[in-house]
Design a protein that fits this description.
The complex is a heterotetramer. Chain A is mainly alpha-helical. Chain A contains 11 helices and 2 strands; from the N terminus they run ααααββααααααα. Chain A is globular, with a radius of gyration of 19 Å. Chain D is an alpha/beta fold. The chains are: A mainly alpha, B mainly alpha, C alpha/beta, D alpha/beta.
């Protein structure tokens, strides 16, 4: 019983880390551009399709294809921000929402047209391997994916701390007027930020493609998941997204284990409601 | 008579006479149009007038639908009485969402996410209530489809058409009164600037709560219609996120906070969907998904080029700018 | 002792994150008086206003209107108690007409929209905005917005009007016109006014008494003429320039 | 009534399937329709996009190859295919549109909610609806006069599914000690679970059901669910998935080294689908599903298989295809017997349908007073080498059942 539970918690933790990376993209975008990307899950699904295509047609392991997919999504994000979203940055939230809903509809049905309605999954050769760590069984794919997610998150934090572009982006987030005054090209930085957020999604999608199957209708589900994680951790906070992912991963495991598994989603939404009411800035966000 | 009133009269007459020329197919499309005009208008009270963005509005559709349907199925309560319970339950739910959100200062996008969370929570909850069919669905006995029984809401599709037409006309007139009432002005003030509204003696919390509860209660009536028109309810269809999106498209495309917006939006969107289906079929595109792809592109174009909605744009072109009448400014 | 003053502020204290923004400010305003609250930037004037208006709750001290405490009331309750206010950074209801902006103020005391509309027109006439009543408020110039701010507050029918820098940014002629309006109002309706103002021309012309505060603390109080001659007042303004 | 032109074939006759097949295929020439040249316009409603796109498109593949086959049998049909977009509003308006465009019979609509919405339109317009797939029992409890369903209700699926399990144990001589029941918490899965929990105690099953675990099919990952199932110590897994969720279940079972004697579905889609085989490879083998299946031994199903493989060489030939074909067949047969494509005439002919030779396993297609075909019958199919083979009932079996299944690690 306890070993089973411990196994489950480890699984939840590892899976949560991968979800974190996806949510991190949402958080970065909101933190800087102040636009909630309601097409986030759909973009993740696109990345998963890309991983599947590379795996199927070029026999490229998703872990190796990851940089390429991240780059692809970076370009997509950059172009989306430049060509579409930028005009809506100062518009009210419901306009941004409808815009991104339209984008999501296009993505979902575009992938239906291209890839068909079937679920696509990737079976890497080591897909069924597990490590025995003491009494625990640790799934190899999850461990690899979680490690990769953690590394990428770390790199991203370094990017925002150490590089000029990263610092400039943070300046935009902290003080937009100030950033304009000192001559930063805000439009370009926003596009870069959206691109980086999308690249996170690309990386997360590549990793997720090894864990779950992708269908055109996978998108909305993933969008909701990203929201829950980011709100729980703190919208706009990078550490918060990581924490939120782990928390949601583990709490769903616990809810599934002790309650009815089909109700675990309800549990996540209950956490979301409580956080929104009691601590809307999230666990790691700063109160405005 | 103002030009707006004439336009309104013409529109109502056209819809009332539509069954004379429209076949059952067109009528079924018009029912969908009217349904979305109705719930869009109800949503508009909360967002367009009081400025509170609800992205989980199907919560109230679902609660309204399930309440009246369950009362009918389990206790035999006629729809005409059940709808009061529906309105009460939905208004209460709106009160809970609103008071929690407003009391704790949940604002903007956070409030919108809160409404989604409540809707999704309720969806999963309803999947676990066996008495309401769970995910297996709640079925209403269809009964006689030829007569007209407004008490039980059983009857001919034409009856449902006139019912939803009356509901849409009713909510239009109600909203028209509301925007010119003390409460309506209070909402506008809250929508525009809460701090300034409070400084003018407006109880912001109460005003917002009134908007949510009224909007929720009216939306629930749409849910009752939905339940008795389709005669089956499933949590994922009654409470699903995509239904919430469908509800808010019409008023936003038509023009947020305007009276004609939701109607115009619904009149554009539903036929647009039908039109795209026919056009793609006529052009020989058989692939599934192409219709929604075009729909998405059309939606994108509308929000991009007419960000204030179609009605404010059309109004300017029709010479119906507000301020023509003596203090009877139409929104 | 005579009847309670219209507004009594005593020993008002407010801390922001350990910083004492207002520290022991006291003054009282009799019915029908016009009092100016002046002081250099950051002196805590607006914070005092916000505590009177119920936006902030004071950490210490009393605020009373006609002997009844205003502490603990929400802004809308303070307004309904008879205090109208304007905001330093104007907050017009941008997407509705000028007349409707004012009408909403008038709905404070009447439930009849028609009556509120008539009141709104009177107030707009009084403030010279009548010809712009159909415009959307967001299209107004800054002076007109300031004017609208005052009109809205006036329409609520206040006993006490709190004006937060309504003359700032106005041209001298416009300032004079507005000063004249307030004097008329004060003379004819007995309206009590407390104003925060930097434009000394307006302060001198309008106020019967001036309260000076600096870094949250009271400095002195007197007639306009007394205050401008008070070396402490000069000090606090000059002290700001020379560190 | 002249409608009885199809030969009634009793059960014994049906079991001697091969010969009867030829006879029925020859039937076309015998009945001599009055307006042979005029094809029946069949409006087909399926969720081709939206969340049920996968199932809907699978049905559509079956429909695509149908007109040519029916034409060969002297039953010309013209298909008018409409997409419900997995949306109830669209389902209803599309149904009206199809009728407005001249559809004489409607077939559909896969999803129970949409089917009921369409049924109301059909009832109103006097146009017959032949349901290809939709398991909610309520559909045929509404007293509709125009609705005919050639698909078993959930209780029937489960009753037969559980009975077949006993047959598997009897045939193989092994009986499990206890079972755990995992099911998808969607419309279909819940209907099935309700039936399982209600019927299980009445069917004298040789093993106890220790726990029922409902899961959200959309849930990203099913590790907890499988972990919970493993913790019960059961040696049989009853699984009611609804699509690709079974892939995630099996994958987790392998990873968590949960080794039951078998994974059996009492009647649900998933474990015989192309994606299942492709993704799981050798781990997909030996899983069993008890459900209505295409009878591999009738001439008509062989003809359908041939046409299907030619049109869709990569797609799996499964239940959705068979039932969609049969629904259209039923409509065409009625029109032929009526000698008219007029909806009224077709409607009059439908209640006396009796099609002995068809593609699904089971007795002749006949409808009871409620419009329900009571002769549907489940079979046990088991996966071997990435293909589903019929293992029971033995009359139509293509292979022998293997139980218990070899452990995950023992597979080449």
């Amino acid at each position: 019983m306890t070993i089973d539970l411990a196994n489950q918690i480890v699984t939840g933790l590892l899976t949560g880390l991968v979800y974190s990376l996806m949510a991190l993209g949402l958080s970065v975008i909101f933190g800087v551009v102040r636009v909630v990307n309601f097409a986030h899950g759909e973009m993740t699904a696109l990345a998963m399709y890309a991983a599947w295509a590379l795996f199927t047609w070029a026999e490229l392991d998703p872990l190796l294809g990851l940089p390429l997919i991240a780059l692809l999504l970076f370009v997509l994000g950059y172009v989306m921000q430049r060509g579409l979203i930028d005009a809506f940055v100062a518009k009210p939230e419901h306009m941004q929402f409808i815009l991104l809903v339209a984008v999501a509809i296009i993505m979902v049905n575009g992938s239906l047209l291209v890839f068909g309605p079937d679920a696509h999954g990737i079976q890497v050769p080591y897909g069924f391997d597990t490590y025995e760590v003491g009494p625990l069984l640790v799934d190899k794919v999850r461990l690899l994916a979680a490690t990769a997610a953690l590394c990428i998150s770390g790199l991203l934090m370094l990017f925002f701390r150490r590089t000029m572009t990263g610092k400039a982006i943070r300046a935009c987030a902290d003080n937009l007027v100030g950033a304009r005054v000192i001559g930063l090209n805000v439009k370009r930085l926003y596009a870069v930020t959206f691109g980086i957020g999308a690249a996170c999604v690309g990386a997360a999608g590549a990793l997720l493609s090894m864990l779950i199957d992708v269908m055109p209708s996978s998108g909305p589900e993933l969008t909701m998941l990203a929201f829950i994680i980011v709100i729980v951790g703190g919208l706009g906070s990078m550490g918060g997204a990581l924490l939120g992912g782990i928390l949601i991963g583990v709490s769903e495991v616990l809810a599934g284990y002790f309650l009815m598994p089909s109700m675990k989603g309800m549990f996540s939404f209950a956490i979301l409601i409580l956080i929104l009411i009691l601590r809307p800035q999230g666990l790691m966000g700063a109160r405005k | 008579m103002s030009r707006q009133a004439i336009l309104l009269g013409l529109l109502l007459a056209a819809f009332a006479l539509a069954p004379l020329v429209a076949g059952p197919y067109l009528l079924s499309v018009l029912v969908v149009v009217m349904y979305f005009a109705y719930v869009g208008q109800a949503w508009n009270i909360m967002m367009g007038f009081a400025g509170q963005l609800s992205l989980g509005h199907t919560l109230y559709v679902g609660l309204g639908a399930y309440t009246a349907a369950a009362l009918f199925v389990h206790l035999g309560v006629p729809a005409v009485f059940g709808l009061f319970a529906s309105v009460a339950v939905a208004a209460l739910a709106g009160g809970v969402v609103g008071s929690l959100g407003f009391r704790f200062g949940v604002k903007g996008v956070y409030f919108a996410l809160l409404t989604i969370a409540f809707a999704e929570f309720t969806r999963i909850l309803f999947e676990h209530i066996p008495g309401l069919g769970g995910p297996g669905g709640l079925f209403l006995p269809v009964g006689d489809r030829s007569g007209i029984d407004l008490v039980h809401l059983r009857g001919h599709p034409l009856m449902f058409y006139y019912l939803i037409l009356a509901m849409t006309a009713g909510i239009f007139l109600l909203c028209r009164r509301l925007v010119r009432s003390r409460l309506g002005y209070t909402w506008l003030a809250v929508r525009e600037d809460q701090e300034a509204a409070a400084a003018l003696g407006i109880n912001v919390f109460r005003a917002k709560l009134a908007a949510v509860m009224l909007s929720a209660g009216l939306t629930a009536l749409g849910g009752v219609f939905f339940a008795f028109y389709y005669n089956n309810l499933f949590p994922n269809q009654a409470f699903g996120m995509n239904r919430s999106i469908e509800i808010i498209l019409a008023p936003i495309v038509g023009g947020l906070g305007t009276l004609f917006g939701p109607i115009l939006g619904a009149l554009i969107l539903t036929p647009l969907g039908e039109g795209i289906t026919m056009a793609t079929e006529a052009m020989g595109f058989k692939a599934a998904g192409i219709k929604q792809l075009c729909y998405g592109l059309a939606l994108l174009a509308i929000v991009k080029f007419l960000p204030d909605g179609v009605w404010p744009w059309a109004r300017a072109r029709l010479g119906l700018e507000p301020g023509d009448g003596d203090g009877e400014d139409d929104r | 002792m005579s009847a309670a003053p219209l507004l009594l502020v005593e020993g008002l204290v407010k801390n922001f994150r350990g910083l004492r923004a207002v520290d022991g400010v006291s003054f009282s305003v009799g019915a029908g008086e016009v009092v100016a609250l002046i002081g250099p930037n950051g002196a805590g004037k607006t914070t005092v206003f916000n505590m009177i208006a119920g936006v902030f709750q004071p950490d210490g001290g009393r605020v009373e209107l006609e002997g009844a405490s205003l502490v603990g009331l929400r802004p809308d309750q303070v307004c309904r108690a008879g205090v109208g206010r304007t905001f330093q950074l104007v907050k017009p209801f941008g997407n509705i007409s000028v007349e409707e902006n004012v009408l909403i103020g008038a709905l404070r005391w009447t439930h009849d929209v028609g009556q509120a509309r008539r009141r709104a027109r009177e107030v707009l006439d009084l403030l010279g905005l009548a010809d712009k009543r159909r415009q959307m408020a967001r299209g107004l110039t800054l002076p007109d917005r300031k004017c609208l701010e005052v009109a809205r507050a006036l329409a609520t029918g206040p006993k006490l009007l709190l004006l937060d820098e309504v003359m700032a940014g106005l041209r001298p002629a416009e300032t004079d016109r507005m000063v004249e309006t307030f004097r008329t109002l004060n003379r004819e309706t007995g309206l009590t006014i407390v104003l925060i103002e930097h434009v000394m021309r307006a302060v001198m012309a309008l106020s019967q008494r001036v309260v000076v505060i600096n870094t949250g603390k009271p400095v002195c109080e007197g007639t306009p003429d007394e205050v401008v001659r008070d070396p402490r007042v000069l000090d606090c303004y000059l002290g700001q320039e020379t560190p | 009534m002249s409608g009885h032109s199809s030969p009634m074939v009793n059960r014994r006759g049906f079991l001697a399937a091969g010969a009867a097949g030829a006879a029925v295929l020859g039937l076309g020439g015998r009945a001599r329709p009055l307006h042979a040249a005029e094809p029946l316009k069949v409006g087909l409603l399926l969720p081709l996009s939206g969340s049920l796109a996968r199932e809907g498109q699978s049905c559509k593949r079956g429909a695509d190859v149908t007109p040519a086959l029916l034409a060969d049998m002297g039953m010309p049909v013209q298909l008018m295919i409409a997409d419900t977009e997995t949306n109830i509003d669209t389902a209803r308006t599309r149904a009206e549109k199809l009728i407005a465009d001249g559809a004489q019979v409607l077939v559909g609509a896969f999803d129970s909610a949409h089917t009921l919405a369409v049924a109301q339109v059909c009832e109103q317009r006097g146009v017959p609806l032949v349901i290809n797939i939709a398991a909610a029992p309520n559909i045929t409890e509404q007293g509709f006069k125009t609705v005919f369903r050639n698909f078993p209700t959930a209780p029937k699926l489960v009753t037969e599914g559980l009975a077949l399990m006993k047959d598997v144990f009897k045939t193989t001589g092994t009986t499990p000690t206890k079972a755990v029941f995992l099911h998808n918490n969607d419309t279909f899965g819940t209907a099935m679970a309700g039936a399982v929990n209600k019927l299980f105690p009445t069917l004298d099953m040789p093993f106890p059901l220790v726990e029922t675990i409902a899961y959200d099919g959309a849930a990203r990952d099913l590790a907890v669910e499988v972990g919970k199932a493993k913790a019960t110590g059961a040696d049989l897994v009853l699984l009611v998935p609804h699509g690709d969720d079974c892939i995630r279940v099996i994958r987790e079972m392998v990873k968590q080294r949960f080794e039951p004697k078998a994974v059996i579905s009492p009647g649900s889609p998933g474990m015989y689908e192309a994606q299942f085989y492709k993704t799981l490879g050798k781990y997909s083998d030996y899983c069993m599903t008890n459900l209505p299946w295409i009878n591999p031994k009738t001439a008509m199903s062989q003809a359908l298989l041939k046409a299907f493989t030619k049109a869709y060489p990569d797609a799996l030939f499964e239940m959705n295809i068979g039932y969609t074909f049969e629904a259209i067949l039923i409509a065409a047969d009625a029109a032929k017997r009526a000698g008219s494509t007029d909806p009224k005439a077709v409607l009059a002919a439908l209640p006396v349908t009796s099609i002995a030779e068809h593609v699904m396993i089971g007795g002749p297609i006949v409808f009871d007073a409620k419009g329900q075909n009571t002769n549907t019958r489940s079979a046990t199919i088991q996966n071997f080498g990435g293909k589903p083979l019929v293992v029971l009932p033995s009359e139509v079996a293509e292979a022998k059942p293997v139980f218990p299944a070899p452990g995950w690690q023992q597979r080449g």
